[in-house]
Structure formats: structure tokens, C-alpha cells
Design goal:
Shape: globular
Number of strands: 10
Structural class: alpha/beta
Helix content: 40-55%
Strand order of the largest sheet: 4-3-2-5-6-7
Order of helices and strands: EEHEHEHEHEHEEHEHEHHHHHH
Strand content: 5-15%
Number of helices: 13
């Protein structure tokens, strides 16, 4: 368990300061998907020399066209870079990227710093730290908040667990991709903060979807109800930035046939981790448990590849008797 008095540090980017990393070598990025692509792009745009790796070769080619180098495997990246970010879907993938046959730690140089931005169990972050320490390699868990919109805008919040000295060494790189760096505490604290945030996000999405569904059943338009929510006590990030009703926000996945974004299957995975942590710490999370059940049901009903805001669409069909929970 983590202390209830976790020390947090908020670092605000100042426009007058040059925050580009000056480490004298390349920066590596593994996992250039929905989140990784804009994050890695910001690193390049801020003047960093980038090496990328992903199993999606089309994504790699797009970065090569911009001037990035390609690593054939994580091990080759570790030979070329001493600052490396990973952003991969789940715990088994990140363990493989670090500790596999051609993983980062097979070639990582002493003094390198590896930063995992993936959403994983806090215990996985602790395992990665142990693996890195045995090789003389620094490690920080650095998950992010803000989802794809913030990744594209370069306004992510980084929740960091690990040594404060290491945070100071890499904060300029983080601020190439975001606006805030919060040092949450020891290894695993960043991952813990991210899991808590994503549980709240899921609950908020379900609540907003239910509210807008009910409003329309009562004869109110979703547009008017959204306007009311956003100027009153019902306002949330979901209602304002990521509205689940098609047509209200052109930039939301809901207006693009719920193309992700943040996949339902990934949020279900995160909620599973939150419930594992709740059970381990005896935390009472009934709403988190219900959110986990709902999103797992969505996966089981073919919604896994949809954006998580498709909870609105799912609840509409459930209400008509089309889907059973």
C-alpha cells in the first residue's frame, strides 16, 4: 500500500524556458498507436532525435517519413537510446518489451532511463523497477491523463512514480508532450493514480450516458441537456470534452461512429486492475465494480474495438431489450 500522504509536485511548463531534452543521444518510443503517435510526434516537433518501434509497420513508416529512425526490436533501440518511452496495451506486453529475448533490458546501457507510459497494475511497475535495477538501469512509471485529445494538443498530465532525482532528469522530455508532471511518490504510485483516474472516467462516462438517455426519454434534447450540465453541478470532462451522444461534439469519437480513441477492451482491462487493487486493499468501490461489469459485458457483446463512449449506444440498445447484462 502507498502512504495516504503521497507527496505531489506540480511542474508547470513556462513558455520562456527551452524544455527540449539535451541528453546527447536519441530518444526512443515503443508503441506508436492512438496515444503514442501524437506523443512521439511532439517529441520530434520539439527537436528531439527519435527512434521508434512498433509491430504496426505502417505506423513506423509514417514516422520514418518525418525523419525518425526505426529500431528492428526493443534491444536495438536500447543500444541506440538512453531515454526510452513505452506505451503498449497491457501488462504482458510491457513485460515482454522490457524482459523478452530481444527486450530492452537485453541491451540497455547502465545509466539509461526507461519510462513506461502504459496503464498497468502498480505491481507490474514494481516488477519492472526490479528488473531494471538489476541491470543498473533507471525506471519510472509515467502514465498519462487526458486521453487522445490531450495527447494531440500536447497537454497531457504525467503521473510519475519513482526517484525524484530521475524525475528531474527527464521532466523536460515529459513537458515536450504535456503540460503537467505530478510526482506521485515511489515506484508504482503513478500507475496507482492512473488506475484510480480511469475508474472515475468509466463511472463518469456511464453516468453521463445514462443522464443524456434519460433526458431524451423525458422529451429533452441531448444538446440542451449537455448545455445545462456544462454550466451546472453535473458538469464533467466527459460531458464537456468527450460527449457520448453523436453530433454534439464533432471532435468526439461518438460523432465518428465511435471509432477509438480509447477502446472499450482497454478500459475493461483497466477496470479489472482497479478491482484487483480494491480487493487487495479492502477499498469499497461498488460503482467501480458496476462499471467493470458493464464494460466487460460490452466486450462480450462485440463492442471491444469501439471507443469507450459507446457506453451510450450500448445502454440505448439495452434499454430497448436488444442486449442483456
Amino acid at each position: 500500500m502507498f502512504s495516504s500522504k503521497i507527496i505531489s509536485r506540480l511542474i508547470q511548463q513556462q513558455p520562456s524556458i527551452n524544455l527540449t531534452q539535451k541528453c546527447g543521444s536519441h530518444v526512443g518510443f515503443i508503441g506508436i498507436g492512438f496515444m503514442g503517435t501524437p506523443m512521439a510526434t511532439h517529441l520530434m516537433d520539439k527537436g528531439n532525435s527519435l527512434v521508434v518501434y512498433d509491430i504496426n509497420k505502417a505506423a513506423v513508416e509514417r514516422f520514418k517519413a518525418k525523419g525518425a529512425q526505426e529500431a528492428s526490436c526493443p534491444a536495438e533501440m536500447a543500444e541506440k537510446c538512453d531515454r526510452i518511452f513505452t506505451m503498449v496495451p497491457s501488462d504482458p506486453y510491457v513485460i515482454e518489451v522490457f524482459g523478452g529475448k530481444d527486450g530492452l533490458l537485453s541491451k540497455a546501457k547502465k545509466g539509461s532511463i526507461l519510462m513506461d507510459c502504459s496503464t498497468v497494475h502498480p505491481e507490474t511497475s514494481k516488477k519492472l523497477f526490479t528488473m531494471c535495477s538489476e541491470k543498473g538501469v533507471g525506471f519510472l512509471d509515467t502514465p498519462v491523463a487526458g486521453a487522445v485529445p490531450a495527447a494531440k494538443a500536447g497537454t497531457l498530465t504525467f503521473m510519475v512514480g519513482g526517484s525524484g532525482d530521475l524525475v528531474k532528469k527527464i521532466e523536460s522530455l515529459l513537458l515536450c508532450m504535456g503540460k503537467r508532471v505530478v510526482h506521485c511518490g515511489d515506484i508504482g504510485a503513478g500507475a496507482a493514480a492512473k488506475i484510480c483516474n480511469n475508474m472515475m472516467l468509466a463511472i463518469s462516462m456511464i453516468g453521463t450516458s445514462e443522464t443524456l438517455n434519460l433526458a431524451q426519454n423525458l422529451g429533452l434534447s441531448a444538446e440542451m441537456m449537455t448545455e445545462i450540465l456544462n454550466i451546472s453541478s453535473g458538469r464533467t470532462w466527459v460531458s464537456e470534452i468527450y460527449n457520448p451522444v453523436p453530433g454534439i461534439l464533432e471532435t468526439s469519437p461518438s460523432s465518428k461512429n465511435y471509432e477509438p480513441g480509447f477502446k472499450v477492451e482497454l478500459l475493461a482491462k483497466d477496470l479489472g486492475i482497479s478491482q484487483s487493487c480494491a480487493n487487495k486493499t479492502a477499498a469499497i468501490t461498488p460503482m467501480g465494480s458496476l462499471a467493470f461489469t458493464l464494460y466487460k459485458t460490452m466486450v462480450n457483446n462485440g463492442y471491444g474495438e469501439k471507443d469507450f463512449s459507446a457506453a451510450y449506444q450500448f445502454l440505448l440498445k439495452k434499454g430497448s431489450g436488444g442486449i442483456k447484462v
